[in-house]
Specification:
CATH class of the largest domain: Mainly Alpha
CATH topology of the largest domain: Farnesyl Diphosphate Synthase
Largest sheet: 4 strands, parallel
Helix content: 55-70%
Shape: elongated
Bound molecules: iron/sulfur cluster
Amino acid sequence: MKIVVATTAGFCMGVRRAVDMVLDVSNLSQEPIYTYGPLIHNPQVLEMLEEKKIFRIDKIPKKGTGVVLIRAHGVPPEDQNELKNAGFTVINATCPRVVRVQVIINKYAKRGYSTVIVGDEKHPEVVGLLGYAKGNGHAVTSMAKFLELPKFKNCVVVAQTTQNTVFYDEIKAWCKINATHYKIFDTICGSTEKRQTEIRELANENDAVIVVGGKQSGNTKRLAQIASQTGKPVSHIEDASQIEDETLFSAESIAITAGASTPSWIINDAVRKIERNIQKQHFSKTFLFISRDFLLKTNIMAATGAGFLTYACSMLQGIGPELNHALIAMLYVLSMQILNNLLTIKSDKYNHPQRATFYKKNKIFLQALAIISGATGLYLSFITGALSFIILLVMSLLGLSYNLKIIPLKSRKSQITRIKDIPGSKTILITFAWGTVTCLLPAVSNQSDLLPVIVVFLFATGLVFARTVFFDVLAIQGDRITGKETLPILLGEKRSFNIIKYVLIFDICIILLTFFTDLLVNSAFFLAFIPLIMLLLIRFFKKNNLISGVHQEFIIECSFLVTGLLTAVIQLLM
Ligand code: SF4
């Protein structure tokens, strides 16, 4: 059975912008924060906002204080003025594409034109748009209603940005024949159009469709409608808990899409649950899936990868295989990653709900595992040498203090009290820590020459950086909510992907360049395949969809195992 996730599933630009704006205000402002109406039509996001003490107001009070954010759908101009007059600071998060429709209506309404909006008059976006029509606006949801309208002398026709494209095309076609003087504008948002086209195609190509998103969300409901028109079974769910197994068991392939207001963590969770349900059909696959899932959740997979990477780094420097160092790296990574997951159960609730549940359920076992592995790693470094021990101790203390309030600096604009609060700190710290245990510790205890150490350190940290930033991009929405400062949050997804690309290209170049020097062992240039494969994989995942599933995580984590194995094969053959 195959799962295909629509590349257009999840937050659109306007919704993402509105959610980012409200979270930014909440991180910087001490004043009460409200949204005027629900920020978006998604119950989980609204629940998350309430947890962050961002409340909604549905009626404008006579007097008020604090910040009010206008949602992506926009509001009538009178409401904005009323909010300001009541004493609120108004932040307008109306989507720029909705603003464009407001501007069109306003411009023509001022010239005395009537306005026809193809959309649901009760939908907040349409309510807002009607506010610009100077009392001469009409909303229609069917051809019959449109034909009931009088023939206007001057009229502008627009569509709700999430309207069904096929229906709007019918209206446009009618106007072109019967009301040629009407001014018609293409106002359906490109993102809506793409989403609808994609689900139509996916529904035709697959046996069943799952649409993820709020039951109140107009655009999500429309996706379900469009998929149903193909005659395929369609299930509209709000989250993974509503997935019905029968839909899955009878289908050979399932297409998954999500509305513009569905956050990625809900889609991720649904994909993971479907993957799990599919694997349950076959015992061998179930066993494989559960094992993979367990290795990923417990971080044993990441820790093993660190061990293999240490082996590769040592061999590249000509140190030779030393089990001690591979074990130190494994134990350090295992301990730090588990502790980090234990401390961030709250953000995992958004990014990885199943992992959060797993950590809650097995808290004592995992705490013990983290402490024992951390202590064993320190003991092994102690018997390796005093300098190794000191370096590992410092790295461990740095890792442990990551979430603790240790920085006294705090001002109205800057909320930095922990290493965690420093922009980009998570990504940089993980990369540096891995580079230290996989490359620097073996080099220190073997007193390697500086130049080869620098080259291998750059190579290893380049791979770790790419892996970490990729996972951070997958978790960007949950991290934003919980205030984690990752590089993708600081720079945005696009720039983060560009940086991954340049870092991996740099990795390929430095390894290839060593072929012309005697800095590393002769066969080192073969390892240029690893950053190349990572580059291609990340490009592939990015192109298909940035949804985090067990397969993606497993494949990326495997790159370090492959690095170690490839090194071993090269050593055997050379
Ligand atoms: S669907 Fe389009 S118009 Fe509507 S909020 Fe999203 S990006 Fe903006």
